[in-house]
């Protein structure tokens, strides 16, 4: 989960000691009329979004979080990723370092959501997956952002309209979902989600911006799970039911889907990668209140998953889920 952003945090902004890129180098930004974005939440997702915006789209980025510690962690994620990218692209260490510094010079770190919002064209929220936390943040942003600013949430499971209800009617016309996938620098897809009030020019601006980030955008209305999770989560839960009924083992289900369907991971490996707590959170939300999914057999909770989460076994991030992980990227089949 990404850190929660609280209102009225003390302002503190830092910038890496490198020169801003000249205006000519920011020419790609003119294609979508976005010169600066704010990304609120400096966790894995927020850091990844900030990176592709600064690197691929060449726009100025303000990465915002509640503390310098969170910001420094986010910055270190971006820096490590960029170093890997430019090391592969350039055999000259000095040239790779120069390119890294050029991208990092476009990223400003800040603990002030209000200051960041006041100078941004697009604001992307990437905080904890909690409806009330997101609503509090967007109310704060609505009061501070310029009238033209576009708001976007990176939620993977919450209805965009429910989040947008926190802002003014005028701002809802400039509100949408931008669902990136983890790890953001590598994953090409972005789901661009429209609510009923989203204006066409706002939607087109977000499509252009994501393309400038090197992504492939797909469009979806504000339906539970959008496209990918709406298909993926029921698939994972059907795999759970197969194992719960004793029809097959998790190992055989994973092998079958990799070799028979060509998937890079089986459903149990995928749940461990995503996080068992995250998978449960998404499905529980749909079962309790998802439009068209509430109380459905399709979203019925899994006792097997519930028990693992209750035991603190969340998958790779906790060291154990359906499989035990003895090292980075390594698993021990149970």
Automatic annotation (TrEMBL):
<keyword id="KW-0276">Fatty acid metabolism</keyword>
<feature type="binding site">
    <location>
        <position position="156"/>
    </location>
    <ligand>
        <name>NAD(+)</name>
    </ligand>
</feature>
<feature type="binding site">
    <location>
        <position position="81"/>
    </location>
    <ligand>
        <name>CoA</name>
    </ligand>
</feature>
<dbReference type="InterPro" id="IPR022694">
    <property type="entry name" value="3-OHacyl-CoA_DH"/>
</dbReference>
<feature type="binding site">
    <location>
        <position position="317"/>
    </location>
    <ligand>
        <name>NAD(+)</name>
    </ligand>
</feature>
<feature type="site" description="Important for catalytic activity">
    <location>
        <position position="179"/>
    </location>
</feature>
<dbReference type="InterPro" id="IPR008927">
    <property type="entry name" value="6-PGluconate_DH-like_C_sf"/>
</dbReference>
<dbReference type="Pfam" id="PF02737">
    <property type="entry name" value="3HCDH_N"/>
</dbReference>
<feature type="binding site">
    <location>
        <position position="156"/>
    </location>
    <ligand>
        <name>CoA</name>
    </ligand>
</feature>
<dbReference type="InterPro" id="IPR052242">
    <property type="entry name" value="Mito_3-hydroxyacyl-CoA_DH"/>
</dbReference>
<feature type="binding site">
    <location>
        <position position="134"/>
    </location>
    <ligand>
        <name>NAD(+)</name>
    </ligand>
</feature>
<dbReference type="InterPro" id="IPR006176">
    <property type="entry name" value="3-OHacyl-CoA_DH_NAD-bd"/>
</dbReference>
<keyword id="KW-0443">Lipid metabolism</keyword>
<keyword id="KW-0520">NAD</keyword>
<dbReference type="InterPro" id="IPR006180">
    <property type="entry name" value="3-OHacyl-CoA_DH_CS"/>
</dbReference>
<protein>
    <recommendedName>
        <fullName>3-hydroxyacyl-CoA dehydrogenase</fullName>
        <ecNumber>1.1.1.35</ecNumber>
    </recommendedName>
</protein>
<feature type="binding site">
    <location>
        <position position="129"/>
    </location>
    <ligand>
        <name>NAD(+)</name>
    </ligand>
</feature>
<dbReference type="GO" id="GO:0006635">
    <property type="term" value="P:fatty acid beta-oxidation"/>
</dbReference>
<comment type="similarity">
    <text>Belongs to the 3-hydroxyacyl-CoA dehydrogenase family.</text>
</comment>
<dbReference type="GO" id="GO:0070403">
    <property type="term" value="F:NAD+ binding"/>
</dbReference>
<comment type="pathway">
    <text>Lipid metabolism; fatty acid beta-oxidation.</text>
</comment>
<dbReference type="InterPro" id="IPR036291">
    <property type="entry name" value="NAD(P)-bd_dom_sf"/>
</dbReference>
<feature type="binding site">
    <location>
        <position position="88"/>
    </location>
    <ligand>
        <name>CoA</name>
    </ligand>
</feature>
<feature type="binding site">
    <location>
        <position position="65"/>
    </location>
    <ligand>
        <name>NAD(+)</name>
    </ligand>
</feature>
<dbReference type="InterPro" id="IPR013328">
    <property type="entry name" value="6PGD_dom2"/>
</dbReference>
<dbReference type="InterPro" id="IPR006108">
    <property type="entry name" value="3HC_DH_C"/>
</dbReference>
<keyword id="KW-0496">Mitochondrion</keyword>
<feature type="binding site">
    <location>
        <begin position="41"/>
        <end position="46"/>
    </location>
    <ligand>
        <name>NAD(+)</name>
    </ligand>
</feature>
<keyword id="KW-0560">Oxidoreductase</keyword>
<feature type="domain" description="3-hydroxyacyl-CoA dehydrogenase C-terminal">
    <location>
        <begin position="225"/>
        <end position="325"/>
    </location>
</feature>
<feature type="domain" description="3-hydroxyacyl-CoA dehydrogenase NAD binding">
    <location>
        <begin position="36"/>
        <end position="223"/>
    </location>
</feature>
<dbReference type="GO" id="GO:0005759">
    <property type="term" value="C:mitochondrial matrix"/>
</dbReference>
<feature type="binding site">
    <location>
        <position position="182"/>
    </location>
    <ligand>
        <name>NAD(+)</name>
    </ligand>
</feature>
<dbReference type="Pfam" id="PF00725">
    <property type="entry name" value="3HCDH"/>
</dbReference>
<dbReference type="GO" id="GO:0003857">
    <property type="term" value="F:(3S)-3-hydroxyacyl-CoA dehydrogenase (NAD+) activity"/>
</dbReference>
